[in-house]
Structures are given as structure tokens and as C-alpha cells.
Amino acid sequence: MSSDTRYLxxxxxxxxxxxSLIVGNREGLLELRRLIDKALVQGxxxxxxFFPSDDEGYEVYVGMVNDEKLFRSFEMPYTEQFGKKxxxxxxxxxxxxxxxxxxxxxxxxxxxxxxx
Length: 116
Known about the structure:
This protein has helices spanning 26-42, 68-72, and strands at residues 8-11, 21-24, 45-50, 58-63. It is an alpha+beta fold. The strands form two sheets. The protein has a two-stranded antiparallel sheet with strand order 1-2. A two-stranded antiparallel ribbon has the order 3-4. The radius of gyration is 16 Å and the shape is globular.
């Protein structure tokens, strides 16, 4: 692996109670930590560019949400519920919000992408 490339694999949960994994080289994990720190300090979101082992770059967004009601209204992150149609079968509408679940990408609408 190149010493300056930020390698990072993020493996999502397939369904509830299953593990999720984050694996990267030192540069990738340090950049992820920097994005987390930036989101915590600014109280919003941050983004950065990473690479999986096939070197096809992708953006990672890190967001902080202080509003528990909003957080509980986001669709669930499980890969099992996505396919031709997301039926939100794992979403529990604890807030009784008729418009929920909300797409989590709404908190990243104003996130500025950082230059390499």
C-alpha cells in the first residue's frame, strides 16, 4: 500500500445485531479521526476522500446530530433493507412522524467537500 493513500473499508451491518467494521491503513484512520474531530468541533458535518483496496475513490461524510428526535427519524442503516425498493422494514417510527423515515443525507446537504 502506498504510504500516503488514505485506504478505508467501511462494512455496514446487514441487519440489526450484526457487526459493522471500519478497517484502514494509518493514513485512512487518521483522516477519519480528523473528520470526526472536525464534526465534533463545528457541530455539523465534514467530508473526506478515501480509497478501498481497488483504488476507486469515494467520499466519506461524518455528521453530528444533537437532536435525538431527528436522529430517531432517519432510515435505518442496514443493507438488508435496500434493493430494488427500500421498504423500510426495519424502521420503527418511535416518534409517530407520518413523514418518517427521513434520508440521512439531508444533514449533509451543505457539507463542503475538502480539496485533496
